[in-house]
Request: fold
Amino acid sequence: MLRYTVKRIVLVVPVVLGVMIIVFFFQSISKADPAAEILGLGASQEDIARKREEMGLNDPIVVQFGRYVWNFVSKGDLGVSYVSGRPIMQELLTRFPITLRLAFSTVLLAIVIGVPLGVLSAVKQYTVVDSGVLAVSVFGISVPNFWLGLMFISLFSVRLRILPALGLKSSLGWVMPIAVGMVTAAANYIRVTRSSMLESIRQDYIRTARAKGLSEYVVVFRHALRNSLIPIINCLCNSLGMQLGGALIIESLFGLPGIGKYAVDAISTRNYPAVLGSVILLATTYTLLNLIVDIIYTVVDPRIKTALFTSRKKNVPTRAALKDGRGANG
Reply:
């Protein structure tokens, strides 16, 4: 298990490096001059040239990228903001908890609502209940977040005046952002849970459990749902990634001071180090979440853990094979 975990951690490195290469490349081909952006419109060409030399912008792009990666790995340095002049990492860390809280709260609420509805839809297949749940799921998947957010603001903030439209001045400021993100996430959980449950309840062990006289609650939740968790856990990872990526829309719409709004503001002001740092932090977080989910797989389904150990043992020579001078498969 430790070997598998270490291997998955090592695989995080090329993913993050690939993201850095892509974003850094698009930044390098931009026509905007970072030195001119920092100095402003009134700067002379001599000042701009001096600033470019100071920032190392005259070096080849490969040298600039290598210096950026080295500073990030060795010192956690993501550069300095063109707007505030503060380190990017410092600004990101002050906003990161808000984005994480929004993402995890949204996903937790989506699980609480979506998984039970998915189980209910599977148990009541081809009934009015099933049709109603599927209609809710289709609506949640189809509706855009920005449109739903605008409708929520129009209804609860403008007309009813019971929820704040922008900011986090009170705990009520979290209600609409979480609810908007939850709709799509819960719809995905309904769809995945229903599909996985329908496959499980048709298995022989479910018929055996019912034949033994077990209650329907035990059959559905202890046997069917437990063996349907792998697709649901996979959906968990995907929904967390969607929430982290969708933070740009939701945080900008509701004025939440998280990484998403920070990245959008950085794009509008051409603050390229801030954009690059935001993307790197979000990509690293999502990759680490994938790692955690892969480890959870082995806990939920022991067969995956057994397969890992079995595949490892096949490549280890036995004592008898070593004595005869042969490999494990010899």
Q: What stands out?
A: Residues 148 and 180 are 6 Å apart (CA to CA). The domain at 91-262 is CATH 1.10.3720.10 (MetI-like fold). The two ends are 26 Å apart (CA to CA).
